[in-house]
Amino acid sequence: MPQITAELVSQHNLPPEEYGKILATLGREPSITELGIFSVMWSEHCSYKSSRVHLKRLPTRGKAVILGPGENAGVVDIGNGWCCVFKIESHNHPSFVEPFQGAATGVGGILRDIFTMGARPIAVMDSLRFGPVTKGPSPGRQSDAEIGRNRRILRGVVSGIAHYGNCFGVPTVGGEVVFEPSYSGNPLVNVFALGLARRDQIFLGQAGGPGNPVIYVGAKTGRDGIHGASLLASSEFSGADGQQKRPNVQVGDPFLEKLLLEACLEVMQTGAIVGIQDMGAAGLTCSTCEMGGRAGTGVEIELDKVPQREQGMSAYELMLSESQERMLLVAERGREREVFGVFRKWGLDAVEIGAVIASPVLRVRQHGEVVAEIPNSALTDEAPIYERPIAAPPRTVPMEPPVEAQRALSGRTGKALGEDLLTLLGSPTIASKRWITEQYDTMVRTNTVIGPGGDAALLRIKETSQGLAMSVDGNGRYCYLDPRRGARLAVAESARNVSVTGAEPLAATNCLNFGNPEKPGTMWHFREVVDGMAEACEALGTPITGGNVSFYNETEGQPIYPTPVIGVVGLLGNAARHATPSFKNPGSKILVLGEAQHRQESRITFGSSQYAKDVLGALWGLPPDVDLDYERRVQACCREMIAAGLVESAHDISDGGLAVSLAECCISKGVGASVALSESQDPLYQLFAEDPSRIVVSVPANCLAEAGRVAAKYEIQAQQIGTTGGNGLKVSLEESGSVSGEGSGREPVLFELSVSELRLPFETSLPAAVEGNGRAAGQ
Questions:
Q1: Domains of the chain: which residue ranges?
Q2: Considering the domain 579-747 in this protein, what is its CATH number?
Q3: Contact present, 435 and 426 (Cβ < 8 Å)
Q4: How far apart are CA 188 and CA 324, in angstroms?
Q5: Is the distance from CB of 779 to CB of 684 less than 8 angstroms?
Q6: Per-residue pLDDT tens for 464-510?
Q7: Residue-wise pLDDT tens digits, 676-705
Q8: I need a surface site. Which of 106, 314, 463, 509 has the fewest CB within 10 A?
Q9: Which residues are identified as catalytic?
C-alpha cells in the first residue's frame, strides 16, 4: 500500500486543511482507497463546496414541482397522472481533452440521470460554446492554429453528440451554439435531457432496508475515467493537459446504454426495486455513499464481485472508475432472481455485490479485507463548504463606444444597414446550424413537433395530446459585462422561447459555467449570476429543479466568460395549437409585441450586441436591462394569442435584433415582408438593438382587432410594422401606426434583399467555416 505523503495528498487536489479534516473524521490515517474516495467526493464537481452557500438562494418550489434539487433530476407535474423529468449537465473539460468521447459520454450521463428516475427519455438538447472558427472582426482575434483547433473540437463534439444520441434512439431536437474567443481554450458542452414518467412510478436513489441486496448492473468496470470528476472537472488546465489527461475521459457505448435503459425500466415494473442510481461522476463511490446517505443507512460491498473488463484492478481503481453504462440497484431481499432474470434477458451483467447495512457507513471489502470504511455523512452532507472571498474585478471594458465604433455607428446608410444584416446572418453564432443538426436524428420516436430551427423544441405527448416545450439559453458576453443583468436576461429569453411556441413555462434547470472559484472575481460573478437568476425565476414562475455547477473553466489562467445556461420546460395543453417562427402566408400583418423599455441606455447597451461584436469588432457598455413584470406580460399575451388562433407565426427578438428576427422569419418558407421603421428613431438601433421582451408575430388581417384587444388586456404595446409577402425583405423608414393603423409610406426604402440573398450567408457560412473553406460568406 502506498505511503500517504503530502505530495500524494496534493496530487489528489486535497489542500492540507481538508486532509486534516479527513484525519479528524477517521481518527487515523486513510488508506489509499479512502484517500481517493475523499478526493472525488470532496471535489468541486461532486461536493459543490464553493457554490452551495449561494445556490440556497434560488427558488426551488412551485405549483408543478414534485421533486427539486437533491435527486438525480427534477420532476414536475404535467397532469393526467404524468410528470416530466429533466436536467442539464456539463462535460466541458472532457470535451476539450477528447472531444468525441467527452461529448458522447456527456449525453450518456444525462440520459442515465433521467431514466434512473423511472422516466423514458424523449429528447435531448445541447448548449455548446467554442472559440472562433473564422477570422472575423470580433475582439480577441485568433491565430490560424487556434482556429484550426476550434474547428477540430467542434467537429469532434458534434460527432460525439450525434453518435450517442442517434445510436441510443433519442432525438436531439435543438439547442444553441455560440462562438467567442473566451472559449478557445475551454469549450463548453452542456446537455439538457427530458423524459416522461407516470407520477406514481418515480424512483429515488435511496438504499432502503438493511439486509436488502445491492446489485451492480450494466457494463463491466474498466480503468477509463478514473479521477474524471476530481481532476478533469475540478481543476484548471494547463497547455499540456490535453494529452496527459486523455486517460481520465470515459468511453461510452450507446448501444449498451439502450439495453440498460430498457432493462431498468422493465425491472422497475416488477416492484422489486427499492432504489436505483446511476454510476456517474465518481462511479461506485458516489452511488454507494449517496444512496446510503439519503436513506440514513449504509452500504457494504465486496469488490471481488464487481464485473471487471481488465485484470488486476485495485480497490482504488474500482471505486474511482467512471466507466459508463453502469447502475446500482437496491432490491427487496428474496426477489433477486426477478432482477437477475430481467437483466439476463437483455444480455447485461447483474451481480449482487453487497448489502444495505444499518450502520450509516460506506464499507468496502476486497480479498476478504476492509479497504475503506467511511461515514456516509463525511462524504456527503459534511463535505467541506467554503464561503470563498468575493470581490468585484476591475472593469476593463469601456462604458462608451470606442472612437472607431462611434465613427462607424454615425455613418450607416440604408444600403450599409442591409450589408450589415448579411454580415450578421453569416456570423457563425447567428447562421443556420443545419450543418450541425442534420447530423442528429431529430425525429426518432416521432414525438417531435418543432425541432431544430425553432425558438424552442416542442414534443408531443402521445398519451395525452399535450406538448412539452424545452429551450436552453445563455449569453456569456452579457454576463461578462454585468452578471446580474445577464442572468436575468438568460432566464427571460429561455422562458420567452418556450412561450412563443404557445407553451407556459413550468420550471427551469441550470448549468453554471465559471472559472476558478478560488479567485474573488469569479465568485463575485457567480454570486451576481445566482441572484439575478433568482430574481428572474421568481418573477416568471420558473423555479429551479436542479442542475450543475462547472467551475475551473480556465486554461493557462484565462477564464471563460461567466456563462449560466438556463433550460426551461413548458406545457402546452394542445400540441396541435402551437406557433413557429416562419411567416406562412402573404398579406398578414406583422406586429412587434413589447417595446424597448430603456431607450436612454441604447448607446450603452448596444455595445453588448451581436452587431457590435460581428460588425464593429468592439465591446463596450452593459447588456440591456429587463423589466421582469413587463416580460411576464408580453409572454402571457403571446401565449393567449396563440391559444386563440390569432397568430400564424411567433419569433423571439434576440441576437441580432429585429432585423435578424425578420430575416429568419422570411428565410424558412420563402415568404418575404415589407416593414417600416419609425422615422423618429435611429434605424440602426431599431434594426439591431437587442432589447428584451419583444416578439415578432404575424396576424391575419381579420384577426388584427382581436390581437389588439389581447395586447391591451396585458397593457403591452403591439406595434404594426408591416405586411408579409413578396420574395424578399424590404425595410423602409416611415411613421408607423398603431395596431390598426398603416404607415404613410412617404419615406424611401432603406434596403431590400431577396430571400435568396438572405439565405446565402445564413445557410452556407457555418459549413464553410467549420470545413475550413475560407471565411464565411458575408464576413
A1: 579-747
A2: 3.90.650.10
A3: no
A4: 21
A5: no
A6: 999 999 999 999 999 999 999 999 999 999 999 999 999 999 999 99
A7: 999 888 999 999 999 999 999 999 999 999
A8: 463
A9: 45, 91
